[in-house]
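Appendix C. Worked example: Stress-induced protein
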Amino acid sequence: MENQVVLLQGSIKQPIFSCKFSKDRVSQMDSLSTYWSGSNDASDLNGGRRERKGWKVKIHDLSGSAVAAAFITTPFVPSSGCDWVARSNPGAWLIVRPDVGGSESWQPWGKLEAWRERGIKDTVCCKFHLLSEPQDGGNFLMSEIHINAEKGGEFFIDTEKHMRTVTSAASPIPSPQSSGDFGALSPVVGGFVMSCRVQGEGKRSKPLVQLALRHVTCVEDAAIFMALAAAVDLSIEACKPFQRKIRRGFRNSM
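Step 2, the predicted output written as structure tokens:
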């Protein structure tokens, strides 16, 4: 499945990317295999285990080159004793960009975890970490947002807003100078970075993404946020309960 990503300037729509989604299995020989935490054991594949895995999103520039991607790395599976993806065992995406070594090699950029919170109104929690090189001090929590599972909502990275809501944070949340700048993570709170609006489960979503210009130094910088927005959008579907109650009339007709 392929969609077009456009830049909105008033009423003008300018195509800048294409977005391709697939549900292919990822080979053990894939360049991301060292980051793959899902099981490839035959008992999992053939034993009827309920899981959502192998989903991939690739963002291409107008020349057709892949400039960003998102891969499910931890399958979305129902947690023990329930029928949904719970906080105790969240599904996860790896957000990546092409490595300088070649178009088939990917460099990790971020990790998105998602799970379902049950309540009067179910929500899907999306938790995003920016990944960095070990010498830069590890990974950084950039956002943890609850989105209404039925109606959808907004996912955002806004370090000032996050600091106001997560007062127990052990350390300041940094803000990258650009989406690809792993070495220049600043301890100074950087404010708004990006936001995207997504629809609820079962609805066709066309995420509207907004970016802070100071975090985008080139077209490729924007692409990585498109991949993140797509992963957030697909997480709403990935976190749906694995079984729905069958309507009485439908059950009687079988």
